[in-house]
Amino acid sequence: EVSRPTGSVQTTQQEDDIVTMEDDYQALTSKEETDLDQLMSECKIAISNAELFAEQLSKQLSVLDGANIHSIMGSEDQVLNLMRLLDDGIRSAETIEDKLDFYDSILQNVKDQMEVMKEKDALINTRNKNHQLLLEELDNLVKQLDIDTRHLKALTDGDLSTPGGICECTTAAHILQRCLNADIHPALNQMAAVEEQQRKFTRFSDKFGKRLAYHLNNLFIQQGNVLGETLSRQVPEFKLPPHHSAHRDLTPYADLMLWLKNSDFDCFTQLSKVYTQNLSKLYNKEIQDFLEMAKQKLGTKPDKNKLGVGLSAQARALSGSSSSLNRKMSGSVQSLNSDSISMHGSSHDLAMRHLFDQIIDKILSELEPVCLAEQDFCVRFFHLAGDISVNKEAKQEEESDDVWKPLQPSAPEVVRHMNEEVRRMMGELFPNLESELEAFVSYADRLDGFNSMYMLVRMSQHVNNAQDTGSFLSLMFASCLVKIKRNFDKFIANQIKAIQDFKVSKKSRCGIIAFVHNFEEFANQAESIFKGSDRHTHLDKSYKALVVVIYEQIVRVASESQKTPKDVVMMENFHHMYSTLSTLKIPCLESDRKEAKQIYQDNLNSYTLNLLGRPLEKLHVFFEGVQNRVATGVKPEEVGFQLAFSKQELRKVIKEYPVKEVKKGLDGIYKKTLKDLCEEENLLQVVWFSMQDEFIKQIKHYEDLINQCYPDSGITLEFKVDDVLSFFSEIAQNH
Known about the structure:
Elements: H1 7-23, H2 30-42, H3 45-48, H4 50-74, H5 76-144, H6 149-157, H7 163-180, H8 186-189, H9 192-233, H10 244-250, H11 254-263, H12 265-299, H13 307-323, H14 347-381, H15 390-399, H16 420-429, H17 433-447, H18 451-464, H19 472-500, H20 514-529, H21 536-560, H22 566-584, H23 590-612, H24 617-631, H25 647-655, H26 659-676, H27 684-709, H28 721-734
């Protein structure tokens, strides 16, 4: 039996509960409020008597606690069974855990064994792979360092004088070069077998290089001697002998020269010097003989009776030899029209100048293909450009009928750009070419100053048509062009000095001055020479300088001339300059042409007025005085009342010039004019008609003054305008 607590104890517990509730007060939820309302509704005294209600609740709680305790004590066996089951479960779990530990140890052992097996398998694979790589590397090494015995035999005993032997030696040399330059790992290079094989290849390379150099050295010397002997035995011909055969014989050795350049550069350089030394002597001899023959042709004076035939024959010979060139010139060189200058200068001078034009064109046309062919050969044979494929050369030679043909690039990227090395080698092959050509230029300039104009045009055309402006030939031509331009400037300066130094003759009439004639000849020939040339601007500058000096010197000569009136000298020479410039139609001299025309007209009027004062001199003086009186303010009708200008004085003066006397005076003027003017310029009729117009103008002026100052006097001149026209016409016809 369970004892219940007393009332005091309950009171204490209630107080504690109240304190606890106060400390942990929480608001009731809606469900709790609902349950509380239901509980209070079941107990009617809950509101009226709270203590009784609380006591009832306590009793009910005690009953419930007791019931719970009895329920727990009744289920003790079940609890014991539950504990036993829990103990059994723990033991089973421990057993399973032991088995799992055992299995885990077994799996760990298997894992360790698998890892060991995996490592062993990786090592086996690595070993097999290394063995395979080593086998491949050794196989590759053997292939790289192995040369067939026939190639070694070709290097040792191959015939370098036959095409077949050259081909075998070239193939063997390339294979040897490939073995020497084989891409071998540095570690493999330390192998004794590799070192021994490399030493063996080096010995073969040295021996073959010496044998090849010896053979080519003898071949270069032999070719130079053979070409020199051939040149001495041949009949002199006005052309440079081609070296195509020598180039063709040396071309098969081009690949071997490349091999020698890569394997023994010093030996290659020495061979290049041997080639240039032997060929330079030959080229110097050929060029000297060629230019000397050109000088001889210029020194031969053509026969006047056979001038046309000889010139035509020489022209045909020159054109025929030019057509035999194996290399087509780059760009067409414009030929000068000889017919357009045939009417100026002496026949001999024109023939020699035309011949010189053909010769200078022939010289340049011969030098260009020879130099370009040699340059092209050197670039390919000595591999100066470094990027020209021998296979492409061979392919082009197979496609062409000509065994030797200058290399024509098939694509823009193959186009060669000449460098300093190419120009250096060409300079060694042609050491005296520039000096020889400049000497010929000086010689031609001494022969005839006009030659500098022909050379300026021709050389400019060749320089402008050059495909490679940086090549040896282009630079050499450009240097000569500078000298030619200086010679041309010197020629113009000499012309100007000759004009300034012209001396006036004191014993003969002046006429057309010599330097005026010379300018006409110079201008006509210069226009024919420079027609279509881009150097015409230089000629225009020369024109301006010459015309300025000519105009100045015409004035000087006119002032110093003692036999010819100044007006006549000025009139005739400026008329000649005006006619010349009008015919030439040179744009840069248009202003000078207009100036010449104006000066000519001014001097024509001046000369006419000066002569016309003589036949009616007293009449002219009388009316000049009348005009002066009117100008001073005297009325025209009052002039006649002055004693000096009375009607009687006027009649007296008019009687002194009857018709016969006037005609005689005009005839004297015509004779004077005929004496002053030169027949060459043919200005007599022009001057005579000008005098006629001026004389009639004076007569009409005198008649007007008579009508103004002496009206109703009935005074008239003894001749009329029609009489004057008849006089002028009759005098001109009689002479």
